[in-house]
Automatic annotation (TrEMBL):
Entry-linked Pfam families: Mo25 (PF08569)
Similarity comment text for this entry: Belongs to the Mo25 family.
Protein's name in the database: Calcium binding protein 39
Organism: Fistulifera solaris
Gene Ontology biological process terms in this record: intracellular signal transduction
Alphabetized Gene3D superfamilies for the sequence: Leucine-rich Repeat Variant
């Protein structure tokens, strides 16, 4: 995560504050998060009251809002840069975070965060990035870093605040992905990062996928629309979000207890809504010939991760029991792209390794026994020289097919 330069505060009024009054200069020298928050709320109110006012004056609401958001972001991130000795002896108190939460959780500014998210598109360009950075920081500050324990209580307070306003927060995030609402790429990317930050908390993740109705509202827009948008960056970001939703962040360096809880939530909704997710959407929309290269490749990676995750055993058994799914993966195994054939192999091996193959799946493998063994022998031979695990897996799959 990028932050402003470490000497930004020097230019914020220490040398020049006595010569310049008001405006951005005084904001840049402000170290009080609560004062900044009140200014942000006031500037936002003025912008929403007069959205057509695009004044470039240093005192205009948009300029002041941008300066205050930038300053608050700097103070929050800069607070983490404290000597390790201070943390070790327990002398570090995250005052900026405490003051920020005091303002956000108070009655006067309790709806500031959802309001900022709902009107992100009308904010100055850099301010959108700052809002997303502040939101994400407060929501994950207690999950990462050597000083995570110090920030965890504050992070939980903010997480509870997001949950309190969850309908508004998630509605704003989803609307921000909708090209019918706006056509600004950067806004979609900022909303995507905030959606993924929410996914790191079991309680918020459960709000998104805890019921079939919530999955239809908060996940299916990605499967049905967002991953198919024409802008490559936006569609790629949506696929990354979908990966996080469906794999519960498997492979990330996270707390094992939290990861296990997330995995169990994922397993529950992926099994409960199996037909709507896998049969009606995933295989037909993301792995079909009409899907583009990026979509098919990431979809195969998602599928492989899901099938090989222990908590998804029932999903794996149902998926590899399907004759239709096997035929689809065998087609992808012969794709012209070497990357897709490799990703397809990691799904195909699950079909072959299944000890309880249904008769129709077994028959397809037997009917294509010689062709499959020959094709797999030549598949990615160059990779075998450097990847012993791939070499061993491929040899085992070929031997299993030949022994059918």
């Amino acid at each position: 995560m990028s932050i402003e330069g470490p000497f930004e505060w020097l230019a914020g009024g220490l040398f020049f504050g006595k010569q310049q009054k008001g405006g951005i200069e005084s904001i840049d020298s402000c170290g009080d998060a609560l004062v900044l928050l009140k200014g942000i709320a006031h500037s936002l109110q003025e912008i929403l009251a007069q959205p057509e006012n695009n004044s470039e004056s240093p005192e205009s609401p948009a300029i002041l809002l941008a300066a205050r958001l930038r300053r608050l972001r700097f103070l929050l991130y800069d607070e983490r840069r404290v000597p390790k000795e201070t943390i070790r002896w327990g002398n570090h108190s995250p005052t900026v975070v405490e003051n920020t939460l005091q303002g956000l959780l108070g009655h006067e500014m309790n709806d500031l965060i959802p309001t900022l998210l709902e009107h992100l598109v009308v904010l100055p360009f850099e301010s959108r990035k700052d809002v997303a950075a502040i939101f994400n920081y407060l929501l994950v500050s207690g999950l990462d870093g050597t000083d995570a324990e110090i920030y965890r209580p504050h992070m939980i307070r903010f997480r509870d605040h997001v949950e309190q306003h969850f309908p508004r927060v998630i509605s704003a995030i989803l609307a921000g992905h909708d090209p019918a609402v706006h056509d600004q790429k950067d806004v979609c990317l900022h909303y995507g990062s905030m959606y993924r930050a929410c996914l790191r908390h079991p309680v918020l993740y459960h709000r998104m996928v805890g019921t079939t109705e919530s999955v239809r509202s908060y996940v299916f827009p990605f499967l049905d629309t967002f991953v198919h948008l024409p802008n490559f960056e936006v569609a790629s970001d949506a696929m990354e979000t979908l990966r996080e939703v469906m794999t519960a962040g498997q492979g990330s360096n996270r707390d094992p207890a939290i990861q296990q809880e997330l995995a169990e939530i994922a397993a529950t909704f992926l099994a409960r809504d199996y037909d709507e997710i896998w049969n009606q959407r995933f295989t037909t929309n993301l792995l079909s010939e009409s899907a583009n290269y990026m979509t098919r490749r990431v979809a195969l990676q998602i599928l492989s991760t899901v099938l090989l995750t222990r908590s998804n055993y029932s999903i794996m058994i149902e998926f590899v029991a399907s004759k239709t799914n096997l035929i689809l993966i065998m087609k992808l195994l012969r794709d012209t792209s070497p990357h897709i054939t490799l990703d397809a192999f990691h799904v195909f091996k699950v079909f072959v390794a299944n000890p309880n193959k249904p008769a129709e799946v077994l028959q397809i493998l037997r009917d294509n026994q010689v062709k499959l063994a020959t094709y797999l022998t030549s598949l990615h031979q160059e990779k075998e020289e450097t990847d012993t695990q791939f070499r061993d897996e491929k040899a085992l799959i070929i031997a299993t097919i030949q022994a059918l």
